[in-house]
Design brief:
The complex is a heterodimer of chains A (157) and B (111). Chain A is of the alpha+beta class and 157 residues long. Chain A contains 4 helices and 8 strands. In chain B, a hairpin with an 8-residue loop joins strand 1 and strand 2. The chains are: A alpha+beta (157), B mainly alpha (111). At the A-B interface, strand 1, strand 2, helix 1, strand 8 and helix 3 of A face helix 1, helix 2 and helix 5 of B.
Chain lengths: 157, 111
C-alpha cells in the first residue's frame, strides 16, 4: 500500500487511463480540480502556473506553466461536458504541438470516504499518440525496465 | 515506428492475449500449455499467437512438434515506456494535488 503511484491501463490503441485514490471527499477533490485558484496550486507540478478558465460546457481554458529554466509551456482546450462532482470532458492541446488534440475525460467516484479519480485520454490518431511519446522522450530510457515490470504486473492482474 | 507500435497496441487490446503474454513472462510454453487455462479451442489460441507473433511480441521455436512460444520483451518495453512517461507526468501532478488536498482538508477542518 506504500506505492501511491497512479495505475495505468491501455483500453485501446489510442487511449490511456490513469487512476489514483485521494484521501479526501469527492466534493473537495472536485473543487480542487475545477476552480482556478486551486488548479494553480497543483497542476503545474511545482512550477508557477497561470490559469485562465471559463468553466462551463462550451467554455475553454489555457494554462501556462513557467518552468524553472525560464521556458513557458502553454496548454489549452475546450470544455465539452460537465456533470458536477462526477465528470468533465475536455480537449487538451499542447501549444508547442498545435493541432494534436486529445480528449480527456475525468471521472470522480466515492470510495469509502475517499475519491477515485480516473483520467482517460483519447488521441484522435496513432500519430498523435506517438507525437506525445516523442515530445516526452527526454528521460525515457532510465526507467524503461521499471516500466516493463509495471506493465507485466498489470497484464497479470 | 507508428505502424509497429499500433500493431503492439492492437495485440495488447485483447484480454486473452494479455493473459498469454503474462503466462510467457514466467517462461516459454507450448500451445497446449498456453491453451490449458482457457475455455477456447486450440485453433483460437493459435490465432491469438499469430497476432502476437506478427506484432513481434512472441517468437516460436522451429521444432514442428512443439514450437514453444517465447516472450519478446522489446516491443512491450516500447509501449511500457510510452505509458510510463505519461504516468510519470501525471504522477507528479497527482502528488501535488494530494498534498494540496491535505492542506485544504486541514484548513476546512479548522473553520
Amino acid at each position: 500500500m506504500t506505492d501511491r503511484r497512479a495505475t495505468t491501463t491501455l483500453p485501446s490503441d489510442t487511449e490511456i487511463t490513469l487512476s489514483r485514490v485521494f484521501d479526501a471527499p469527492r466534493r473537495l477533490v472536485w473543487e480542487a480540480m475545477t476552480q482556478p485558484q486551486h488548479i494553480k496550486r497543483w497542476w503545474g507540478r511545482g512550477n508557477d502556473l497561470e490559469v485562465t478558465l471559463d468553466f462551463r460546457p462550451g467554455g475553454s481554458y489555457r494554462y501556462v506553466e513557467h518552468a524553472e529554466d525560464g521556458t513557458d509551456y502553454a496548454f489549452r482546450g475546450e470544455i465539452r461536458e460537465i456533470v458536477p462532482q462526477e465528470r468533465v470532458v475536455q480537449t487538451f492541446e499542447f501549444e508547442g504541438m498545435p493541432g494534436h488534440i486529445a480528449v480527456e475525460t475525468m471521472t470522480l467516484e466515492d470510495q469509502d470516504g475517499k475519491t477515485l479519480v480516473v483520467i482517460r485520454s483519447s488521441f484522435s490518431s496513432t500519430e498523435d499518440r506517438d507525437g506525445m511519446l516523442s515530445s516526452g522522450m527526454e528521460d525515457g530510457a532510465n526507467a524503461s525496465y521499471d516500466a516493463l515490470d509495471a506493465l507485466l504486473a498489470e497484464l497479470q492482474r | 515506428m507508428t505502424d509497429h507500435l499500433s500493431r503492439v497496441f492492437a495485440a495488447l487490446a485483447d484480454p486473452t492475449r494479455r493473459a498469454i503474454l503474462a503466462r510467457l513472462a514466467d517462461g516459454n510454453a507450448t500451445v497446449n500449455e498456453l491453451a490449458a487455462p482457457f475455455s477456447i479451442s486450440l485453433q483460437a489460441v493459435s490465432k491469438h499467437l499469430k497476432v502476437l507473433e506478427a506484432a513481434g511480441l512472441i517468437t516460436r521455436g522451429r521444432d514442428a512438434q512443439w514450437r514453444p512460444c517465447r516472450l519478446e520483451p522489446e516491443p512491450l518495453r516500447q509501449v511500457a515506456e510510452w505509458a510510463e512517461q505519461y504516468r510519470r507526468h501525471w504522477d507528479e501532478r497527482f502528488e501535488h494535488l494530494d498534498s494540496y488536498l491535505r492542506e485544504l482538508t486541514k484548513e476546512r477542518g479548522n473553520d
